[in-house]
Amino acid sequence: MVNENPLILKRGLEDEEGAMLLQKERATSSVRPEAMATFIFGGQEALSRRLRALAFIESDPVFDTKDRNYLDQKSRYMRSSEKVVHLVLKCRRLGIPFTQMLDILNVALDEITPTDVHTKMAIPSLMHQTTPEQRAKWLPLAENFRIICAYAQTELGHGSNVRALETIATYEPSSQSFILHSPRLESAKWWPGGLGKSATHAIVLARLLLGGKDRGLHSFIVQLRDLRDHTPLPGVTLGDIGPKLGFMSVDNGFCLFDHVRVPREHMLMGLAEISPDGHYRKRKGANGGEKILYGAMLDVRAGLVERGGATLARALTVAIRYSAVRRQGYAPSPPGKLSQSAPLELQVLDYPTQQHALMPLLAWSFALQITGQFMRRRYKAYLRELDLSLLPEVHALSSGLKALTGEVVSQGVDVCRRMCGGHGYLLASGLPEVFSNYTAVQTFEGTAQVLEPQLARFILRLSMAPTERPKGSGRGAATAAKAPFALSSDFDYVPLAAGKTFVRCRAATPVAFLDPAFQIEAYEARVSALLLLAREEVEADLRGGEGGLAASMMKNGVLFGRLSRAHCQLVLLRRFHEAVAREEGRVTMTTARNGGLDGEGNGGRIDRGAADGSEEGESEDREGSVTVGPAEVRVLRNLCHLFALSGMERDMAEFRARDYLSSGQAEMVSREVLRLNRTVRAEAVSLVDAWLLSDKLLGSALGRADGRVYGALFEEALRSPLNDKEVSKAYTLHWRRLLMAGDCAWGNARL
Amino acid sequence: MVNENPLILKRGLEDEEGAMLLQKERATSSVRPEAMATFIFGGQEALSRRLRALAFIESDPVFDTKDRNYLDQKSRYMRSSEKVVHLVLKCRRLGIPFTQMLDILNVALDEITPTDVHTKMAIPSLMHQTTPEQRAKWLPLAENFRIICAYAQTELGHGSNVRALETIATYEPSSQSFILHSPRLESAKWWPGGLGKSATHAIVLARLLLGGKDRGLHSFIVQLRDLRDHTPLPGVTLGDIGPKLGFMSVDNGFCLFDHVRVPREHMLMGLAEISPDGHYRKRKGANGGEKILYGAMLDVRAGLVERGGATLARALTVAIRYSAVRRQGYAPSPPGKLSQSAPLELQVLDYPTQQHALMPLLAWSFALQITGQFMRRRYKAYLRELDLSLLPEVHALSSGLKALTGEVVSQGVDVCRRMCGGHGYLLASGLPEVFSNYTAVQTFEGTAQVLEPQLARFILRLSMAPTERPKGSGRGAATAAKAPFALSSDFDYVPLAAGKTFVRCRAATPVAFLDPAFQIEAYEARVSALLLLAREEVEADLRGGEGGLAASMMKNGVLFGRLSRAHCQLVLLRRFHEAVAREEGRVTMTTARNGGLDGEGNGGRIDRGAADGSEEGESEDREGSVTVGPAEVRVLRNLCHLFALSGMERDMAEFRARDYLSSGQAEMVSREVLRLNRTVRAEAVSLVDAWLLSDKLLGSALGRADGRVYGALFEEALRSPLNDKEVSKAYTLHWRRLLMAGDCAWGNARL
């Protein structure tokens, strides 16, 4: 057996060098990871919650992920089922409440489970779309996992365009029930997680037919399987949709209904109701319910942005640690002399190309985390106050941000893998798993092509009806009265867009680009130029009379995508600067810590939203926590600069539109990015340490906190199923036939 | 059982609509796929060879790939082993010669096999690095698969920097043998395909130690396993390195040597020899051998470029056909009325955003195919004439092209997947498999970070020693005498770079950008600006005296990467224009078909290399083939324009450097790209049809030639291992415990 080979056993302990290199990186960094962690996770309390959840998982071998790389689809589904059941039963035993259990499931388990949709989509629907009686019946069943409820919206032939869904629910007053039916193959529900083999029920979106009239989409809670033996109920055809790039641990399913009878009370009637005799009525105050639902989607999207930051940080933890440990190039042994102690090769992390690939992504991980947390806090404030005035803005923004995050993080994770060279391609690097799962974000719940026009249309409309829109300084409160909805200062550039496109950047030296006001001006100029161009195109189309706004939006979809991304980057930059400014304020005014200084020192650009957003984080971490000090704040400031300038470099053509930046200024930006890369590189290992991702969670031989990369790679290799026998069955069954064929039956061991 | 469900059986035949849509696309296209295929594959003869190879594979069920998505690592290795053995034995039986067998293996089998390295790396080494006696002994053994030979270069701790390899071969005159040894864990050979469980031998790169003196890297043929029973020989520790993102069908392996004795005659002595008493001597004329080896690498890289084009075409075949079949958006049923024949949704392919993602990639697939074939023809000419004068140029170019191709194709395949929406994420789409395997190109045999500086350095050196370089028109022949090596006109811009950066583009209308000369000027201006900037940086560094050229190259690595990519795109554009011009020449001058008009009508920009390159293609397809006509040539011309302009749009910031393009011209380019996208879209289905990828080869439910997408998706889903039982074991073992826990043992089937 290979793994009893003394040669390997003896050598497995040799790679001290990686350990030494990471120690050096940590010793020379000015960042204290534990302080930075408090910042990243939004205060000591949130951090402690997170650590408790992680400890819950990591102390229990059932939750181990060591077997992951070696399991096929079926085994992965079995394992994830085992994990959920064990987790829920254990929490039940220990008296851990539902919300805390969700923390553990979502943050710490590190597994996409068959019940994710049950907890994230079905339960919120049961909470917000139901009548009190329905809620009283179904919610406890769902929260206690006495039923498992899929959320069945998407159909085989219809994704984002929900208006085209084909499943029909025909109300039959005589039996007081709906007849649920899938008219053709393309109407099969397709994709819902947990639907294939796990769910007992599903919330099914179907077109309600009432006395021959189409009342549009409604939700029904439909039982799928017998509760005694889990067999599908009559008329229900269920199954798994097959293996996927990722999400192997989930039974994404299909479901066809053949005239399935559903009791009247199983329509979710929080928003509209049907009387026994088939009278349809919108419910009073249902609007609020719809908006709460709407808000729930915002929470999901905020979570996607935040999770995007964390996912990127995870891939970066692997890539940055490995880049510090891996040596390559530039120090060959002198020819003609062999020395075991030949001059060492360089750390890969010292290559400017490596830094250029990784450091801007590190800045992105912080930007996304900060912005995701901000969105989540805003959502909570929104729930608390039911102040709906900012809802249209926030909803539009969340569409654009979801799309942008999906793109940046997916590509970023793939970059991290490639920056690990060949070894990144091994599942043992942990990176293919991260990519394969995360990239689903790019297609589920709307692709960029579907989402970005939503934000772009919002911006365009603001710009096209200037009389209805707030002018000038956007402090929402002042303008909410005039406008049908409030607007944060993020949109200040809109009414001024035309003017901004004649501005030229005044930066004469690289250092000028390190002024936040300068950066925000640049991002505003860029988005303004795109907006102006979009407006010109649309106005020309409307004058041409070939269809309305929708047709023109479709025609100019590429441009609208750019507009959406540009706006989102402006918002990310603002949130990043605001967060850093807050920390700067804290650090410089330690004596006035509880005063009202948060957010000052940011060029007066703090808006109402930002101030709102900071509240909660504040109140939490007054005592007993390690907070960010001057050194960490300096690093955060540099990360923020790098976010700004690397974004400018990446989309330089847009910043050069209408010559806002000159060719020479563009070169300056590139030079400054290289300098910032070097600066951040010095702190990079400590910065990823601050995300507190344990070796267990990372599941990566390359990303080990102790730097013992090569021994870990070997250990993983020895676990390859192909190594279970010294001579493979492939030899006995196949290769032997070739090697020994014909006249060449080897009589000798050696040639 | 799900798959006996009559509901599904009945409905499986319903999706006629996809068939109808693809028929419509084909009927309205002006491209005849069979004619275009002749162009794509370089003539009727090459096409016929290809089709014969495909028929060989597709007629035999052993080679089927239907099981692929459901197999784990071990089973995939077993299957690929079975396929190779079956293929070789069958060819042996049918008397098919080795080279033709390789065609079948490499082009048609559609499987990455454990013997790919044996045939692509080891056999060429045995051919070119050996003495005639060694050749006579080893080559027949290898070509007949009586041995399987891995190629063991890369080590666990060392990839591209071969100078740092640690494996040692110490010559011992007393026993006339080498002692092969891996001094530490990091020196383990790591990654070679087939090394883990299949190979009997390996060509091992090791540092030759001779009387205490390091003679640098040499190759040794080392027996690894006993030929009677396949057990590893004493001192050899072998194994598989574990599961990977792709390449699951190959046993990439590791190998550690513990003082393994290798006979003197097993050093490959084609280039240098050791006498029995340990006297070392470079062989006379060995230089030629080295250059042939060098050439072999070029052939591999040409193959990578060509395969890149074909891989992209494969992903595009799926994405474009599915985009034609898939409908989404813009035609909801009117509210309040339900109609089974509601107005149809739009074909996704009609969205400009979809076109913008896919059409430029379609242009790339042609550009890569054309250029890869050109490189391959040049390699053959090179072998024929042993004219080495262009070798430095070609080698440098191949480095840059390998890196660029890997990046564009990997990302392009991923784009194709995402453009299929959620369904692209299913393995049944066939796309994850393509991505997972192809993306390995980005890291194996040198990452972009390692390769691009090689081309950039070549360009930089040309520009820095102008007195030694040919000036003006680069027709290689004229200048070869003066220069140490010849140079094609691809580098004409180099001596003129400084001048070019003051030029401004004169295009005043979008149509002006459709002039090939204009496009080439633009690409030359762009690469010139990068070159000039690079030179300024390097000269400043050299003046500053902080290290030499190597240090400055490292410092400016990001810029040098851009320079490499810009040059490669210029070359791709030139080859594309030349190829189209040749076809235009043929079509317009049908009467003078055999005359010397090839390549005319291209603004006089055809260089010697291009003329060389066209020869072979010519001589092949005179008779009996369907050749490209005026309609196809027009489409090719548009594809070429799209390649040029979408490339400009993508890297617009570089084309705007030193204001070569103005902001307004940049907008024109974007508009023109959208127009070209629409034009190419009309031919898109026929253009992918022309790659002649059968449904079997595609292995994609979404890419079916007949458009019956939804039925195929269902059929694939029914094959999911999770569907083998109606009630999953996950229920019996796990979910049941949760659903029925505590006080809630369900007595009833329904709630």
Automatic annotation (TrEMBL), chains A, B:
Occurrences of domain Acyl-coenzyme A oxidase N-terminal (ranges): 33-148
Superkingdom per UniProt: Eukaryota
Positions with a binding annotation for FAD: T154, G193
Any one cellular-component term (Gene Ontology): peroxisome
Keyword Lipid metabolism in annotation: yes
Catalytic activities: a 2,3-saturated acyl-CoA + O2 = a (2E)-enoyl-CoA + H2O2
Alphabetized UniProt keyword annotations: FAD, Fatty acid metabolism, Flavoprotein, Lipid metabolism, Oxidoreductase, Peroxisome
Active site positions, chain numbering: E445 (proton acceptor)
Signal peptide: none
UniProt GO BP: fatty acid beta-oxidation using acyl-CoA oxidase; lipid homeostasis
Localisation: Peroxisome
Gene3D superfamilies: Acyl-CoA dehydrogenase/oxidase, N-terminal domain, Butyryl-CoA Dehydrogenase, subunit A, domain 2, Butyryl-CoA Dehydrogenase, subunit A, domain 3
A family per Pfam: Acyl-CoA_ox_N
GO terms, molecular function: acyl-CoA oxidase activity; FAD binding; fatty acid binding
Cofactor(s) needed for function: FAD
Residue ranges of every copy of the Acyl-CoA oxidase C-terminal domain listed in the record: 630-738
PANTHER family membership: ELECTRON TRANSPORT OXIDOREDUCTASE, PEROXISOMAL ACYL-COENZYME A OXIDASE 1
Similarity remark: Belongs to the acyl-CoA oxidase family.
Record-given protein name: Acyl-coenzyme A oxidase
